[in-house]
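Figure 6 in text form: structure in, sequence out.
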């Protein structure tokens, strides 16, 4: 969901700056000012993964029974689905702010043109927007983790790293989502975002084990970013920690850094031409 028209938020705070705040934090502060009046939009994202967990994880789980978890260990279906919903919440919370909202600021409200009239740079804008997007993803992840803890779905001390891992997922999708937005020309181009996100959500080991696929398709799925996040969180929450989790984390970190580099270069061309 997108925020309300962003031109209603004044830029005088950015022009003056505040002691102890850097340019990136001022971009985050502006987003907080927007959502201060539109907090119901922010809250609604908490419920989507919860509804999936209750309807599919618990409802359908009563019919499914046990499934193969990490290392092939049988686990309850709701325990299998819950970490995947956490990864999806981090992805959705980050990517919507980094795509739809950034597009409107860039193409319609011309917010970034006004920001560049201040001492802020294109790099400040990119980092500030990515930071806010992953903060939104972290908010959704934190709320969902509390639900999981209340339902008794956390089974390992390694789960203390689940929130940092969720933030890493948010960083990867926020940076690459904003990078993709910098190449979009019209609202119709967002169909490509939907075409990428929906298959990832459905087929990245979210609702059933990877073993149900033929091996060639397994290889394709294993290289998708959401699968990396799902596997990372599932391993941490269910106690299947190992060197493979580090590989998932490195993948997501490199994805985020690559997206950040593309944003800085492409956004500069759009705003400074």
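Output sequence:
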């Amino acid at each position: 969901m997108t925020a309300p028209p962003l031109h209603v938020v004044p830029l005088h705070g950015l022009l003056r700056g505040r002691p102890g705040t850097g340019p990136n934090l001022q971009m985050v502060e502006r987003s907080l000012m927007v959502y201060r009046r539109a907090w119901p939009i922010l809250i609604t994202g908490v419920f989507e993964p919860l509804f999936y967990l209750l309807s599919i994880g618990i409802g359908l789980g009563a019919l499914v029974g046990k499934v193969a978890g990490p290392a092939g260990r049988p686990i309850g279906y709701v325990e299998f689905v819950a970490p995947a919903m956490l990864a999806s919440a981090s992805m959705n919370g980050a990517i919507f702010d980094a795509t739809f909202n950034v597009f409107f600021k860039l193409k319609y409200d011309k917010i970034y043109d006004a920001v560049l009239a201040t001492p802020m740079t294109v790099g400040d804008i990119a980092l500030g927007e990515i930071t806010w997007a992953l903060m939104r993803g972290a908010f959704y992840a934190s709320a969902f983790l509390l639900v999981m803890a209340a339902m008794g779905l956390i089974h390992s001390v390694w789960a203390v790293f689940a929130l940092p891992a969720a933030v890493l997922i948010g960083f990867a999708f926020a940076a690459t989502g904003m990078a993709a937005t910098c190449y979009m020309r019209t609202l119709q181009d967002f169909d490509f975002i939907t075409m990428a996100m929906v298959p990832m959500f459905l087929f990245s080991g979210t609702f059933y084990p990877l073993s149900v696929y033929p091996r060639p398709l397994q290889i394709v799925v294993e290289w998708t970013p959401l699968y990396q996040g799902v596997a990372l969180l599932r391993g941490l929450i269910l106690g299947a920690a190992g060197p493979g989790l580090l590989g998932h984390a490195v993948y997501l970190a490199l994805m985020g850094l690559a997206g950040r580099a593309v944003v800085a270069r492409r956004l500069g061309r759009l705003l400074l031409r």
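Caption detail: Confidence is low (pLDDT under 50) at residues 1-21.
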